[in-house]
Automatic annotation (TrEMBL):
Domain (Serpin): residue spans on this chain: 1-228
Similarity comment: family membership: Belongs to the serpin family.
Record GO terms (molecular function): serine-type endopeptidase inhibitor activity
Organism lineage: Eukaryota, Metazoa, Chordata, Craniata, Vertebrata
Pfam families tied to this protein: Serpin (PF00079)
GO cellular component: extracellular space
InterPro entries assigned: Serpin_dom, Serpin_fam, Serpin_sf, Serpin_sf_1, Serpin_sf_2
Protein known as: Protein C inhibitor
Origin species: Macaca mulatta (Rhesus macaque)
């Protein structure tokens, strides 16, 4: 426990897995507190054989370097697809922005700076090129964009939005070839003295909120390990 705190700055606390409802509440309350209430009920249930739960989380809050004027936000059309149009509160502001046109990926990118040294990148794929842009996203691509940016006077229209997602990673990761950890073949001896344990559930939740003042975002991943059962 002390090594976790010293080496990884991680918190640790005991819980009574015999009281699954109490343990579940203790873990979920901890995550909700650390993410300022953005991630609630990360875990829906605990395996009756649970011996350990590991969670990690991140919380981000930043204000725009220049905020959008609330009076400029108006209901406008937003094209989810060429055939699907929804009405959204659309923010707008004319200013000098970092801008580039990536002809290889068929998209336009605008950088909107936060106070401090962070910048939000908003990507607008050309019509029908969403998949191409998604496939091309990588650290190398982002670094290239940051070098290519040029300041340009733009009238930027940006939807005010809140979006969240939840993913059952114990269902997704085996499809990517990560499967042993979820079976009796798991080897977790590096993090636990318990023998014959495996990961029974792994979930991930994330939320992003963007408005006139800035961005708030949070994410958390929870992993429950239990005494092993036959694969």
């Amino acid at each position: 426990m002390s090594a976790m705190k010293t080496l990884y700055l991680a918190d640790s606390f005991p819980t009574n897995f015999g009281d699954s409802a109490g343990a579940l509440k203790q873990i979920n309350d901890y995550v909700a507190k650390q993410t300022k209430g953005k991630i609630v009920d990360l875990l829906k249930n605990l395996d009756s054989n649970a011996v350990m739960v590991m969670v990690n989380y991140i919380f981000f809050k930043a204000k725009w370097e220049t905020s959008f004027n609330h009076k400029g936000t108006q209901e406008q059309d937003f094209y989810v697809t060429p055939e699907t149009v929804v009405r959204v509160p659309m923010m707008s502001r004319e200013d000098q922005y970092h801008y580039l046109l990536d002809r290889n990926l068929s998209c336009r990118v605008v950088g909107v700076p936060y106070q401090g040294n962070a910048t939000a990148l908003f990507i607008l794929p050309s019509e029908g090129k969403m998949q191409q842009v998604e496939n091309g996203l990588s650290e190398k691509t982002l670094r290239k964009w940051l070098k290519m940016f040029k300041k340009r006077q733009l009238e930027l229209y940006l939807p005010k939005f809140s979006i969240e997602g939840s993913y059952q990673l114990d269902k997704i990761l085996p499809k990517l070839g990560i499967s042993n950890v979820f079976t009796s073949h798991a080897d977790l001896s590096g993090i636990s003295n318990h023998t014959n344990i495996q990961v029974s559930e792994m979930v991930h939740k994330a939320v992003v909120e963007v408005d006139e003042s800035g961005t708030r975002a949070a994410a958390a991943t929870g992993q429950s390990s239990c005494s092993g059962r036959p694969a």
